Amino acid sequence: MFNIKRKEIGKFLFFGMLLVCSLISKEACANPVNDYIYHCGFCPANEEVRQCVISSKLDQFRYPQDFSYDGGRPSMVIIHETANPRSTIENEITFMTRNQKNAFVHSFTDANRVITVANPNYKAWGCGANGNRYGIQIENIEVHSKDDFAKELANCAGYTAKYLLKYGLGSPKLITSKTRPFGGGNLASHSMISRIMGGTTHSDPDGYWADRAGRFFGTGYNMNDFRDLVQYFYDRGNLFSIPPHQRFMRAKRPTSKRDVNGRITEANIPTTYQKEFVDKF
């Protein structure tokens, strides 16, 4: 009898340890940068709109190009980084305004601001013809502290989620194919456009994200991690209808279900939140 009880206790302890290890493994898969953003409650800043910076100039230049997206609306959001460690968001906007005949994006983000300079209903050109015809383009300014990097990612991910909701593109998924429906994806970096679609050779924001995540958090950061952060804000689709000073969300971790690799697989948020968010856009 005693031996039987010992065996049962042994089995209980064994399976209990497996369960604990499984939970620890899943938690370990959550990126420390995202964890820091969740814990600190960093939320997107209010958007500043300066669309005339581009549209008035385009009218003057009388470009021959058609500014409509393929299919009449954007199909994805594309993330950039300036590759200029000494610049500011205002400097980048000034530079881009002067050089918009060569390239421009829709929005810029840094730690404290999101500034939209081109109408996202029409395409920009910042990642080659193959990407331009499909995606809203957001540019990250290089920042230089732990909190600023985390806040910038929150800004960028929040407005990525906002565009996915506004245009009915669905929850964030990385593109895997160069032709529509892009393997079911709606999110890419400039680097991914280079690798998957071609027409450009840039690799941003890979190096910048890796450098700042390594320097300030001792970890890496890539588009898979960013997708998870976008999902976090996508699940909280009513966030932009709340005044900025009320957006603080300390320690409110994602409530979505995750797979064995810790990736979000199923959103657990009422659809009414998403509708409120889109209506307020």
What does this structure look like?
This protein is of the alpha/beta class. The strands form 2 sheets. Strands 1-4-3-5-2-6 form a 6-stranded mixed beta sheet, with helices on both faces. Strands 7-8 form a two-stranded antiparallel ribbon. Strand 7 and strand 8 (264-266) form a beta hairpin. Mean pLDDT is 80; it is low at 11-28, 60-64, 250-257 and 263-281. The N and C termini lie far apart (69 Å). Helix 6 crosses helix 9 (223-235). The protein is 45% helix and 10% strand. It is built from 10 helices and 8 strands. It has helices at 2-29, 32-40, 52-61, 89-98, 128-132, 146-166, 190-197, 206-217, 223-235, 271-280, and strands spanning 47-49, 76-81, 107-109, 114-116, 135-140, 187-189, 257-258, 264-266.
Q: How large is the share of residues in beta strands?
A: 5-15%
What would you report as the Rg, rounded to the nearest angstrom?
21 Å
Shape: globular
Number of helices: 10
Give the termini distance in whole angstroms.
69 Å
Task: Quote the average pLDDT.
Answer: 80
| Topology, number of strands | 8
Order of strands side by side in the largest beta sheet? Answer: 1-4-3-5-2-6
Structural class: alpha/beta
Order of helices and strands: HHEHEHEEHEHEHHHEEH
Q: Percent range for helical residues?
A: 40-55%
- How would a textbook summarize the main sheet? 6 strands, mixed
Low-confidence stretches: 11-28, 60-64, 250-257, 263-281
Oligomer: single chain
Summarize the structure.
The protein is an alpha/beta fold and 281 residues long. It contains 10 helices and 8 strands. It has a 6-stranded mixed beta sheet with strand order 1-4-3-5-2-6, sandwiched between helices. Strands 7-8 form a two-stranded antiparallel ribbon.
